[in-house]
Design a protein that fits this description.
With 363 residues, this protein is of the alpha/beta class. 35% of the residues lie in helices and 15% in strands. The longest helix is centred in the C-terminal third of the chain and has 26 residues. Keywords: Amino-acid biosynthesis, Aminotransferase, Histidine biosynthesis, Pyridoxal phosphate, Transferase.
């Protein structure tokens, strides 16, 4: 008997999430993981590494609660928002009985996490404008315990309409939790749902320090929710989720000085994103550039240009989204430094669109 025969059947059938690091590549311009392109100056302070850390470090919790405008008992710190996705499934979903619902194209870990725990995955594709298809969602809510909504959505950059989220919250009241993934909310803070938690006890918000805080390597995220939800998640979280150095750096990043640096970083990335969007629209091989509210842009390319491979071969690593529904020939481009974005544009300008490309026919 092979070791694989001892594994759970759903794990054997599982197609793992293909993170940027798993996909690899050899380049010097990494624009495939929505990371900040430069390292921040934070570093761990001397500490007692012979002791276990607190399960929920007080300084981190208090600082994040103040930043989000919430009480400390509404905040859970965890190992990235990815852990929060799993904690919710473990706490609220019965394997083989309950389901989670999400709306592709969207972040892939909702699907992978559910499948890992033997929880059914129910999908309702987004509409052509990548907003929620509310009638279709309403028709598929039976048996659903968690509805994941990513806003701004990864990879499309779409901010989901607040009226649709309110309708979803009303539809799920007493039936399911709505989980709003706000990993990119610092790039459009006016769209946060944090102020809604008082009115909707079944709303959960996911946050991270990986994007605007430039700390992807730290693996620190948060779940924001009512105190009752937080207490349930504390039952299933690991005893020591944040190592001492992680908690130390997170606390510094959430200080007044750290928040000021984050906001300056957001302004810089937003300006570069706007420049890149305009420059991409001037490239013959680019068929469409979609408006985005994160630290990335989604663009559709002329298939004859082979843009993904052409840039890959030049050491410019983007994220190919063609396998996602409705995103054929789409690439997601992380906003790097201005110099890195200029390299992308210069490389694309060197590609020649075919005579019969959709863009040229439309011109």
């Amino acid at each position: 008997m092979s070791i694989s025969q001892l594994a759970r059947a759903n794990v054997l059938a599982l197609e793992p999430y293909q993170s940027a690091r798993r996909l690899g590549g050899k380049g010097d311009v990494w624009l495939n993981a929505n990371e900040y392109p430069l390292p921040p100056a934070f570093g761990p302070r001397p500490g007692n590494l012979n002791r276990y850390p607190a399960c929920q470090p007080e300084g981190v919790i208090n600082n994040y609660a103040a930043y989000a405008g919430l009480r400390p008992d509404q905040v859970l710190a965890c190992r990235g928002a990815d852990e929060a996705i799993e904690l919710l499934i473990r706490a609220f979903c019965e394997p083989g009985h309950d389901a989670v619902l999400f709306c592709p194209p969207t972040y892939g870990m909702y699907s992978v996490s559910a499948e890992t725990f033997g929880v059914a995955r129910r999908t309702v594709p987004a509409r052509d404008d990548w907003q929620l298809d509310m009638p279709a969602i309403e028709a598929r809510l039976d048996g659903v315990k968690l509805v994941y909504v990513c806003s701004p959505n990864n990879p499309t950059g779409t901010v989901i309409r607040p009226d649709d989220i309110k309708r979803l919250l009303e539809l799920t009241r007493g039936r399911a939790l709505v989980v709003a993934d706000e990993a990119y909310i610092e790039f459009c803070p006016q769209a946060t749902l944090a102020g809604w938690l008082a009115d909707y006890p079944h709303l959960v918000i996911l946050r991270t320090l990986s994007k605007a805080f430039a700390l992807a390597g730290l693996r620190c995220g948060f779940a924001l929710a009512g105190a009752e939800v937080i207490q349930l998640l504390l039952k299933v979280i690991a005893p020591y989720p944040l190592p001492l150095p992680v908690a130390d750096i997170a606390e510094q990043a959430l200080s007044a000085d750290g928040l000021a640096l984050m906001r300056a970083r957001v302004a810089e990335i937003t300006a570069t994103r706007d420049w890149l969007a305009g420059a991409l629209r001037g490239c013959d091989c680019v068929l469409e550039v979609y408006p985005g509210a994160g630290n990335y842009l989604l663009a559709r390319f002329d298939p004859a240009s082979h843009a993904f491979k052409a840039l890959w071969d030049q050491g410019i690593i983007l994220r190919n989204q063609s396998a996602q529904p409705g995103l054929q020939e789409c690439l997601r481009i992380t906003i790097g430094t201005r110099n890195e974005c200029e390299r992308v544009v210069n490389a694309l300008r060197a590609l020649t669109a075919t005579v019969d490309s959709p863009r040229k026919e439309a011109m």
